[in-house]
Amino acid sequence: MNAPLIEGLYREGEPIADSAAPDVPIDRMWTQRQFDAKLVNPANRRKLDVIIVGTGLAGASAGATLGEAGYNVKSFCYQDSPRRAHSIAAQGGINAAKNYKGDGDSIYRLFYDTTKGGDYRSRESNTYRLAEVSADIIDQCVAQGVPFAREYGGLLDNRSFGGVQVSRTFYARGQTGQQLLIGAYQALERQIGAGTVKMYSRHEMLELIVIDDGAGPRARGIIARDMVTGEIETHLADAVVLASGGYGNVYFLSTNAMGCNVTASWRAHRKGAYFANPCYTQIHPTCIPVSGDHQSKLTLMSESLRNDGRIWVPKRIEDCEKDPREIPTEDRDYYLERLYPAFGNLVPRDIASRQAKNMCDEGRGVGPKVGDFRRGVYLDFRDAIERLGEDAVRNKYGNLFDMYKQITGEDPYQVPMRIYPAVHYTMGGLWVDYDLQSSIPGLFVTGEANFSDHGANRLGASALMQGLADGYFVLPNTIRNYLADGPYEPIDPTHPAVIEAQDSVESRIQMLLGISGERSVDSFHKELGHIMWEYCGMERTEEGLRKAIDLIRSLREEFWRNVRVLGSADTLNQSLEKAGRVADFLELGELMCIDALHRRESCGGHFRAESQTEDGEALRNDDEFLYVGGWEWGGEGESPVLHKETLSYKFIELKQRSYK
Amino acid sequence: MNLTLKIWRQSGPSDKGGMATYPIEGVSDDMSFLEMLDVLNEGLIAEGEEPVAFDSDCREGICGTCGVMINGEAHGPERTTTCQLHMRSFRDGDEIVIEPWRADAFPVIKDLVVDRGAFDRIIQSGGYISANTGSAPDAHATPVPKDQADRAFMAAECISCGACVAACPNGSASLFMGAKITHLGEFPQGQPERDARVQSMSAQHDAEGFGGCTNLGECTRACPKGIPLNVISQMNGDLLRSLRHGR
Ligand SMILES: Cc1cc2nc3c(=O)[nH]c(=O)nc-3n(C[C@H](O)[C@H](O)[C@H](O)COP(=O)(O)OP(=O)(O)OC[C@H]3O[C@@H](n4cnc5c(N)ncnc54)[C@H](O)[C@@H]3O)c2cc1C
Ligand code: SF4
Ligand code: FES
């Protein structure tokens, strides 16, 4: 690659295009694509092997559906059971354009809201399809016995969510993710019982096998480690699906589960899969704040609290240590109500988050000092309790109040809650075309692991929808087009590319165990997280990002020299598992900063301080940045290569978002 | 606060294992029980000793991954998951005994980590509704009365943690299994397979080496999700019914 180095950091390559979407009007695209996709004769399906990495909503639903169709599926997850995938933690709900409420909802409206919510950085064709299949998801889940909330008449209930004006969110109390995942898990277990799916739990994918059989490179398998015995296993197949979730844990502290990681995607990236829009990170405004250095993760509190709770900080820095109940109303700054009188406490996630940070940066944060700052703002129910009575508040939010009390030891009926933003979801991921196929043929990517549907911001209740849409309906239809050309040439397990992949996994493990340095894996992870949060978090600046890139590079260098991983490779070794993941985060972090640096505009979860309106709102730049940034691995020690996929909006008019 | 931890250490499935004692200082009220173990592990690593292996993932009380015996109680003194137990439940100077779940059907893998694969195999044997993808009727085609839906929901809250088994002197998985049978049995969609489900799941339960239920109720006292004992009666009722149906 001899394209010039841009900003000393990256090169630009050929543009990319989504070549799989049929050229027909958007409402006919999906039907057309399903019709055009080649069929696989049922008798041949048994001969086709598909590997699926991940058993969250995206992976379990795909595994169940492909198994049921008769393919030979191998399914992998790092937890002890597929039912524990991170999808289980989702609280709020799942959207679907059912229009059961007759309030004017439609496929087009769901498509419109999702695209606008993503600040016009998602792909129209994918988003439309998501809205189109959304209604089928609910039918499927109900048939499986998912206990959605119901009304007295026995019909399904809906609520409105995330600032949307129609009621299209289906929910199962505060456990929607859990209930949807159990539905998919049970469908998967049914296939495991029937022998169409073979489950490998406590197995971690550590490498992708890409083989050129004369027709160009294709994904043909993975190397996985049995996390109990330490055995390094080779699994070969006709196609590989990554459903391995998001990479929010690069920040160390996030609402993600402890094991969430980027390894599967990153290893595929290093083998040629483009990584798209890595800098897009969703920050959620209502999380329980950090209480000390020991903190291992952050807990989300449902956004619905903002419906009745009022957010404030003291007007004066001197008051920040006071008991909040002793601060009279006139000394409180209800800053969201002050700055955004029309939306008040209900402004979108990115705005609420950024303003909370601004207050704390001014020194008006509350709660314990972590480092030099108090990082918390009050979410106060005093007025709601006065207005509605304590019982009514208890009925609406009782379980959330209990959870808060369990974690903080404070009673929110007596003292205001404290909240602070936290990393929640990553909109970037491996680049895929309309078929959900990555830039490596035979490698498909679904759910949070791909980039396509949410743009620069994700609306509430839409990630669950995407995971299940991909797994139950989209992938099974698109992957067959690829599989119809199979079975592909069998791969000899002694093929040089297989051996190379095995060796690289083994030597990495030996290297990690052999460094015997001074610092624990967690200490590196925390330091990386701190850099990412500080410079590539809620607000990014040119200067900060450049600094972060340098800091990450030297941290990575120190990691490979000074990490201490005890124990051996042939047993359960949790430090070893973490070390491998942190090593990959240390590479991803740099790419996130490069992506954030090159995108000199503000959109959704990406706020560049240099690109704001006069009154401090995010300023998008459609003239220059109306594209997806797809990054190609440049090689060890080389700069990454940027491929742009132009986004064209034919069915939706581009508008600036405004919440004033 | 300063505490003395007595922790079960077992290097692998074939190791005999034994208790080890670790003093720990400077534990704060705000830490969760697992964060306290994280702090212990950082200290062990610094001294060159292998950290204590334990399972956790969500740390939000919903994935069911975590779970240890604390002073002889499953998930410890409060009715919650281990990740949601906080150190303010303990006092300065306390001695805390930490062991893995104890049950024949849950073999120890390492330290505090056990294998709960038997739960998945019970689900495989029939804990589902056979609904193929893409052919489901409209969700509103079959209304479900709210009280039935609520009861199904209550049972569906089981997080598969295994505390009920660990707490049961017989090592029975009846609460776990009863919860699934009740969840699916409350729905119209779950009826066609109802008899077959309870029979195959019960057979698998016994084959995995779980013990019989003698109605001691320890399971429900330990359950972090408050699954009530009456799901076991519903399961037993279903089993009798299926036998009457002659299957
Ligand atoms: C607290 C919380 C609340 C949320 N609430 C909502 C909500 O209300 N509505 C909504 O729509 N969305 C919500 N989300 C977002 C949503 O839950 C996730 O985006 C979505 O569930 C991701 O699903 P997934 O299947 O893509 O990945 P995951 O569920 O993360 O699954 C990843 C899978 O990959 C496996 N895996 C990963 N790496 C490897 C590897 N190297 N080898 C083997 N296996 C691997 C894991 O074992 C796991 O099975 C919430 C998220 C959080 C954190
Ligand atoms: S019934 Fe309760 S204790 Fe038993 S596995 Fe389920 S949640 Fe855990
Ligand atoms: S770690 Fe998920 S329930 Fe405790």
UniProtKB/TrEMBL annotation, chain A:
Keyword Glycosyltransferase among UniProt keywords: no
Annotated TM spans: none
Claim: Oxidoreductase is one of the keywords in the record: yes
Domain of life: Bacteria
Residues annotated as domain FAD-dependent oxidoreductase 2 FAD-binding: 49-464
Matches recorded under SUPFAM superfamilies: FAD/NAD(P)-binding domain (SSF51905), Succinate dehydrogenase/fumarate reductase flavoprotein C-terminal domain (SSF46977), Succinate dehydrogenase/fumarate reductase flavoprotein, catalytic domain (SSF56425)
Keywords attached to this entry: Flavoprotein, Oxidoreductase
Residue ranges of domain Fumarate reductase/succinate dehydrogenase flavoprotein-like C-terminal in the record: 525-659
Pfam families tied to this protein: FAD_binding_2, Succ_DH_flav_C
Name of the protein described by the UniProt record: Fumarate reductase/succinate dehydrogenase flavoprotein subunit
Organism this protein belongs to: Ornithinimicrobium cryptoxanthini
Organism phylogeny: Bacteria, Bacillati, Actinomycetota, Actinomycetes, Micrococcales
UniProtKB/TrEMBL annotation, chain B:
Listed Pfam families: Fer2_3, Fer4_8
Keywords, ordered alphabetically: 2Fe-2S, 3Fe-4S, 4Fe-4S, Iron, Iron-sulfur, Metal-binding, Oxidoreductase, Tricarboxylic acid cycle
Residues covered by the 4Fe-4S ferredoxin-type domain: 149-178
EC class: oxidoreductase
Record carries keyword Oxidoreductase: yes
Domain of life where this protein originates: Bacteria
Cited InterPro entries: 2Fe-2S_ferredoxin-like_sf, 2Fe2S_fd_BS, 4Fe4S_Fe-S-bd, 4Fe4S_Fe_S_CS, Beta-grasp_dom_sf, Helical_ferredxn, SDH/FRD_Iron-Sulfur, Succ_DH/fum_Rdtase_Fe-S
UniProt keyword Metal-binding present: yes
EC numbers: 1.3.5.1
Cofactor(s) for this UniProt protein: [2Fe-2S] cluster; [3Fe-4S] cluster; [4Fe-4S] cluster
Family label: Belongs to the succinate dehydrogenase/fumarate reductase iron-sulfur protein family.
Name assigned to this protein: succinate dehydrogenase
